[in-house]
């Protein structure tokens, strides 16, 4: 069944109005984007250590990659939100994939002529592309169905990002740090040429695929139909405090996460248990695999447990594990590091879904604001690198501890606020925008489905 697109007078659709087959197709297609930037991010953290060897730079200087990559989110995310409000999710995805491919292909001359500045510039372009993809994909998955299970859906989708993040360090441990490749950039240029090709392939795929456009007008229409005009009147954007403080929490969390990952290889090598750079990169790959497993386990828990409550528990666990990494030595510190990756797993998707929940006409603007929070990854690693150069690498993990503290305050604040309004509830429960009934999935026959859809359109 064809639905109107923006600008045709129909106002688009919501995830609740899609049949299960169409919903599954859209979900699967957009999930491929998470794999794309997961692979790029996984490589970035390993290149951080590799460039220290090839170019002979300090830990602080090597964080220029993170500054460029995540700084691009601060610069480009607002534009991405404006672009998608005007042109829709699909064109936003095309723009993001185009920038991603352009940035990746210019890694070739940077590696050929061994210019660290070229790598930093290319990384910034890749970051611009990925910020656009994140605004589109995170927001799209969040609104692609019932708000009640938004965090669960996003954790499942981003689980594939974790699989790609595992593949990046695994490739690096095999090719970047062994033999003559330990001190050259030959392998890097071929890997990023392949990454560019993947971006082009996905761009072509999205061009020929029918991706249902979920608009803010349709989301507002859904709120009116299910909760009335008063609930749908969410007020001006500057009063969306859940979203604004979500941006602060996301900034601190992503900064902490990036700092932890950026110095994982250095941390493992410096633990004094005989770990080489190649072995450390392989161990880092398994840290990412632990992160991925935690994300799928978290998705299962979010089926039953309140999102803010589970985020609070995981946030406090992150604080405890980060202290363990900073204050412990040897295998105890390494064990704390693996546990830290596990408990980090659900944090980004949960903050995103909590911050963008029930925004109605502000959905894309709120999504771009939360994605701007990824910019925290631009300055946390620099602060951590400066501390690592002047103290032990493990002591530098006190920097991400501060980020986890801010995230914990946000999560606990949401739990307390919700308890004050409607009482404490351990279980996952409906929100004001809860609309996905069995009929809306087409499970009770097309007549009931069309009746529900007609009532939403009429409203």
TrEMBL record:
Membrane topology according to the record: Multi-pass membrane protein
Broad class of the protein's primary localization: membrane
GO molecular function, one term: transmembrane transporter activity
A cellular-component GO term for this protein: plasma membrane
Top-level taxon of the source organism: Eukaryota
InterPro entries, sorted: MFS, MFS_trans_sf, MFS_TsgA-like
Entry's transmembrane regions: 23-44, 64-83, 92-110, 116-137, 158-177, 189-209, 244-269, 281-302, 309-328, 334-354, 366-385, 397-416
Descriptive protein name: MFS general substrate transporter
Protein species of origin: Lactarius akahatsu
UniProt lineage: Eukaryota, Fungi, Dikarya, Basidiomycota, Agaricomycotina
């Amino acid at each position: 069944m064809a639905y109107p697109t923006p600008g045709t007078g129909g106002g688009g659709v919501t995830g609740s109005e899609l049949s299960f087959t169409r919903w599954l197709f859209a979900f699967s297609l957009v999930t491929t984007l998470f794999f794309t930037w997961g692979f790029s991010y996984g490589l970035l953290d390993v290149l951080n250590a590799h460039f220290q060897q090839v170019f002979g730079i300090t830990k602080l200087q090597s964080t220029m990659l993170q500054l460029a990559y995540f700084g691009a989110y601060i610069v480009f995310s607002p534009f991405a939100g404006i672009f998608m409000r005007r042109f829709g999710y699909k064109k936003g995805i095309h723009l993001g994939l185009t920038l991603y491919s352009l940035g990746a292909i210019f890694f070739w001359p940077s590696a050929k002529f061994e210019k660290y500045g070229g790598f930093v510039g290319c990384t910034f372009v890749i970051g611009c592309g990925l910020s656009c993809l994140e605004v589109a994909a995170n927001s799209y998955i969040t609104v692609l169905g019932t708000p009640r299970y938004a965090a669960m859906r996003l954790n499942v989708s981003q689980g594939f990002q974790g699989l790609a993040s595992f593949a990046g360090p695994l490739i690096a441990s095999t090719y970047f740090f062994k033999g003559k490749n330990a001190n050259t950039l030959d392998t890097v240029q071929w890997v990023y040429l392949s990454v560019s090709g993947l971006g082009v392939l996905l761009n072509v795929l999205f061009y020929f695929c029918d991706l249902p456009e979920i608009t803010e007008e349709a989301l507002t229409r859904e709120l009116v139909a299910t909760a009335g005009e008063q609930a749908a009147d969410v007020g001006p954007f500057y009063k969306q405090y859940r979203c604004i403080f979500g941006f602060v929490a996301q900034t601190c969390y992503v900064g902490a996460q990036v700092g932890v990952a950026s110095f994982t290889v250095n941390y493992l090598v410096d633990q004094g248990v005989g770990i080489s750079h190649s072995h450390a990169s392989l161990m880092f790959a398994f840290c990412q695999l632990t992160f991925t497993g935690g994300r799928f386990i978290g998705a299962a828990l979010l089926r039953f447990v309140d999102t803010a409550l589970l985020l609070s528990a995981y946030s406090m666990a992150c604080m405890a594990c980060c202290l363990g990494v900073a204050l412990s030595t040897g295998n105890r510190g390494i064990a704390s590091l693996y546990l830290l990756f596990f408990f980090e797993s659900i944090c980004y998707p949960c903050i995103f879904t909590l911050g963008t929940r029930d925004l109605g006409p502000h959905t894309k603007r709120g999504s771009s604001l939360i994605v701007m929070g990824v910019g925290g990854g631009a300055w946390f690693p620099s602060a951590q690198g400066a501390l690592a150069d002047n103290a032990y690498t493990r002591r530098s993990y006190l920097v991400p501890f501060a980020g986890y503290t801010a995230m914990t305050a946000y999560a606990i604040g949401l739990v307390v606020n919700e308890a004050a309004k409607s009482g404490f509830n351990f279980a996952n429960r409906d929100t004001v925008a809860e609309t996905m009934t069995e009929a809306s999935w087409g499970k009770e026959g097309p007549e009931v489905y069309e009746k529900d859809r007609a009532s939403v359109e009429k409203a």
